[in-house]
Design a protein that fits this description.
- The chain is an alpha+beta fold and 275 residues long.
- It is 53% helix and 12% strand.
- The chain is built from 7 helices and 5 strands; from the N terminus they run ααααααβαββββ.
- Helix 1 packs parallel to helix 4.
């Protein structure tokens, strides 16, 4: 996953800059008020769709093939893939869902981040040049770009894994594997609660949803409280809440099921992918 993140980071970074640069241009030439007004005319970031689609093609295809290979290994058979079929399904999935689930939300979030920088600069009495410098700083874009690449890679992995499992003729189980190191975000330390959980492929993991209450940004952390539960097909489930998906580095492991006599259990019918 780190390799995929490095491979796609530059393209996402460049796409974000393409949304920021027009606002900066207005800011430098016409001032803060004009820049604020220009946000109302900011359209969908059309530069985002191709690099995010590339993430789904590369990551989704890899994990689709890896999943079917791993399952074949657990069945004591040679692994194989369905590259052309997998790729077609992944691109169809992207076309149906990722515009509204990825491109639109990312564009809107970046627009709000720009708005925050502009309004905070006005409140502090900063000039247009200083605000433009903040918007143009690599750090402003890089942090966002890394989050997007990691989140969308994880979502692509999730779909690829489900796609790969669907090609197996045997029932299988899936096991949640959580990342456990110093880089794990607080929100995803809660994933340790499902770490190691093994369930049937068609079942859902029960993952707590937490929300911080009573905090003051930059001054005091709030109290984290559980406010619900996401029923997730696995890490990166596109229907899960943002706190359980963004920056998540968990994954799944699959294994073919066997009965009490050690025999593989054939699927009753071909599963329908969750979309």
């Amino acid at each position: 996953m780190k390799l995929f993140e490095r491979q796609h980071l530059k393209a996402i970074f460049t796409a974000l800059r393409d949304q920021i640069n027009p606002v900066v241009k207005v800011l430098r030439e016409q001032g803060i008020e004009a820049a604020l007004n220009s946000l109302d005319t900011v359209e969908i970031n059309s530069h985002l769709a191709p690099p995010i689609r590339d993430i789904y093609k590369d990551v989704g295809l890899y994990f689709a093939n890896k999943t079917i290979f791993d399952l074949k290994q657990s069945e004591k058979k040679g692994g194989f893939g369905f590259n052309a079929e997998f790729l077609r399904d992944i691109l169809n999935y992207f076309a149906r869902y990722l515009l509204t689930k990825a491109v639109l939300p990312i564009s809107e979030t970046l627009k709000n981040l720009i708005l925050n920088v502009l309004t905070e600069g006005m409140k502090n009495g900063d000039g247009a040049d200083k605000i433009a410098y903040l918007l143009e700083s690599p750090e402003f874009t890089l942090i966002r770009a890394r989050l997007i690449v990691r989140t969308e890679s994880n979502r692509a992995m999730n779909y690829g894994q489900l796609l790969g499992e669907s090609k197996s003729e045997w029932e299988s189980t899936k096991r949640w594997i959580a990342a456990k190191d110093s880089r794990t975000r607080d929100s995803h330390k809660d994933h340790s609660g499902v770490d190691g959980t093994i369930i049937d492929f068609n079942d859902r993991f029960h993952v707590p949803i937490y929300k911080s209450v009573g905090g003051i940004p930059g001054k005091r952390k709030g109290i984290r409280m559980q406010v619900g539960v996401d029923l997730m097909t696995g890490p990166g489930d596109i229907h899960a809440s943002a706190g359980n998906v963004c920056n998540c580095r968990c994954t799944l492991a699959f294994k073919s099921k066997r009965d009490e006599n050690g025999r593989l259990i054939r699927k009753a019918s071909q599963p329908v992918l969750v979309e």
